[in-house]
């Protein structure tokens, strides 16, 4: 029953088959014509229609009527003006969607440009910094630079050294804990601007096991916290504080 | 008249000579009137009146927004105008299959003969044939202007072809068979 309906519709479309190819925009019409193309009956119909359309084109326009339009000007369907095209809801919707996609892509690209080996761990530790209270740490009053011996002697952590830039800072407390990837993390709280330091293993190549080193200091941001990270001897050091990058920059520049 | 013509130029064409509404091709509009009426004088009258009215609307800023409105207007004027003249008799018209030599038979016709034949068809078949053979619109646009359904348009066109073929055959055999 459905096939019969389809056949009838196709027959109906063929009876209305366009004379010129430029009226073939409709998909169902194109499909019906393609199926029938070449059959004697359809070829006769098309030749018949073309001959009639040709005859209609020969209909002369009386000069009085031709005054309404210049004969030299071929009056065509207007091209859509750019403003009309831009204000078309479909075009607008597509443009906005493309802008959003481009924005997300750019955001990810910029994020990846700022990434460095260990940046994911550093961001996680910034979250830890935000939730840490001073009572959670063992009270230690010393210069931060001296704690590397404590980490080595008490916890067996080698090269957990505080860089020179922050070595003179007076500590309030420290602790060593395992993160969710069982990495040994050392956390130090200092009095200066309620700053926290983190020492954690640098990221390694999964195949060779070699440390993925990076030069100088890199910044990470997370939930209103900023961290400056550097790598040395396979251990990353991060100085973190609640604020912006410009709050940390003076400490790094001072040493330079 | 001169003012109207100026106004019409405003609504009809932009500076590139294009009509400000889609597919309002003026020469084709005239041909449409001619096919609908089969008479150059009447066609010219309807064509001029349609454009003059449109110019007045344009001057008042009341141009219709829907596409093909000029053709719609002209269609109703043609139907009105054809009511006043001689009416064709209602006859059983013979129908023939389209012949391979139909194209060469049509080549020997004058445009006016075809227009008279189309204008004698009852409406809406007349509108369907006139719009279709203008070769200006696709079938969806014709359905829109003539306010027809696909099956109806298809039937009118198929029937029109077969009747025209019978007329062509009769013309070429020298004896009209109606």
Find the structural class of chain B using helix and strand composition: mainly alpha
- What structural class results from the helix and strand content of chain A? alpha+beta
Give me the number of helical elements of chain A: 10
Question: What is the overall pLDDT average of chain B?
Answer: 81
What's the mean pLDDT score of chain A? 86
Number of DSSP-assigned strands of chain B: 0
Low-confidence stretches of chain A: 71-78
Low-confidence stretches of chain B: 1-10, 13-22
* Share in helix of chain A: 40-55%
Report the sheet-strand fraction of chain A: 15-25%
CA gyration radius of chain B, whole angstroms: 18 Å
Counted beta strands of chain A: 7
Oligomer: heterodimer
Portion in strands of chain B: under 5%
State the major sheet of chain B.
none
Gap between N and C termini of chain A: 86 Å
Number of helices of chain B: 9
Helical content class of chain B: 55-70%
CA radius of gyration of chain A is: 38 Å
Task: Describe the protein's topology.
The complex is a heterodimer of chains A (256) and B (178).
Chain A: H1 2-15, H2 27-36, H3 40-57, H4 63-66, H5 82-87, H6 89-113, H7 119-131, E1 138-139, H8 147-155, H9 164-167, E2 171-178, E3 184-190, E4 196-201, E5 218-222, E6 225-232, E7 235-242, H10 245-255
Antiparallel strand pairs in A: 1-2, 2-3, 3-4, 4-7, 5-6, 6-7
Chain B: H1 2-12, H2 26-37, H3 40-59, H4 69-84, H5 102-107, H6 111-119, H7 125-134, H8 139-146, H9 150-173
Helix pairs in contact in B: 1-3, 2-3, 2-4, 2-6, 2-7, 3-4, 7-8, 7-9
Features:
heterodimer, A: 256 residues, alpha+beta, 3 domains, 7-stranded antiparallel sheet, 10 helices, 7 strands, 45% helix, B: 178 residues, mainly alpha, Arc Repressor Mutant, subunit A, 2 domains, globular, disordered N terminus
């Amino acid at each position: 029953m459905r096939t019969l309906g389809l056949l009838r519709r196709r027959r109906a479309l063929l009876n209305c088959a366009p004379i010129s190819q430029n009226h073939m925009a409709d998909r169902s019409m194109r499909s019906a014509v393609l199926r029938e193309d070449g059959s004697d009956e359809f070829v006769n119909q098309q030749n018949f229609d073309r001959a009639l359309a040709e005859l209609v084109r020969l209909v002369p326009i009386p000069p009085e009527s031709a005054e309404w339009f210049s004969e030299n000007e071929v009056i065509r369907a207007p091209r859509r003006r750019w403003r009309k095209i831009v204000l078309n809801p479909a075009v607008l919707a597509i443009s906005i969607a493309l802008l959003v996609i481009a924005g997300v892509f750019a955001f990810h690209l910029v994020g990846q440009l700022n990434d460095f080996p260990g940046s994911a761990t550093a961001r996680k530790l910034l979250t830890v910094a935000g939730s840490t209270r001073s009572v959670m740490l063992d009270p230690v009053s010393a210069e931060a630079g001296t704690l590397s011996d404590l980490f080595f002697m008490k916890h067996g952590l080698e090269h957990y050294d505080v860089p020179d830039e922050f070595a003179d800072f007076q500590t309030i407390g420290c602790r060593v804990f395992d993160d969710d990837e069982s990495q040994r993390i050392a956390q130090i709280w200092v009095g200066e601007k309620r700053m926290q330091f983190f020492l954690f293993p640098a990221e390694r190549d999964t195949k060779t096991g070699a440390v993925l080193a990076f030069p100088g200091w890199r910044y990470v941001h997370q939930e209103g916290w900023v961290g400056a990270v550097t790598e040395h001897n396979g251990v990353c050091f991060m100085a973190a504080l609640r604020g912006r990058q410009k709050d940390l920059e003076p400490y790094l520049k001072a040493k330079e | 008249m001169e003012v109207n013509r100026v106004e019409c130029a405003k609504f009809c064409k932009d500076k590139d000579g294009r009509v400000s509404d889609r597919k309002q091709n003026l020469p084709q509009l005239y041909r449409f009137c001619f096919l609908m009426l089969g008479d150059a004088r009447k066609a010219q009258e309807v064509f001029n009146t349609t454009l003059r009215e449109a110019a007045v609307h344009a001057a008042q800023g009341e141009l219709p927004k829907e596409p093909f409105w000029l053709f719609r207007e002209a269609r109703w004027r043609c139907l009105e105008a054809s009511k006043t003249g001689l009416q064709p008799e209602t006859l059983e018209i013979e129908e023939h299959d389209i012949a391979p030599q139909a194209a060469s038979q049509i080549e020997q016709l004058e445009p006016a003969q075809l227009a008279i034949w189309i204008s004698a068809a009852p409406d809406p078949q007349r509108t369907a044939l006139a719009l279709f053979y203008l070769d200006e619109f696709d079938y969806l646009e014709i359905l829109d202007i003539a306010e027809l359904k696909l099956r109806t348009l298809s039937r009118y066109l198929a029937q029109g072809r077969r009747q025209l073929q019978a007329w062509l055959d009769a013309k070429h055999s020298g004896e009209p068979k109606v």
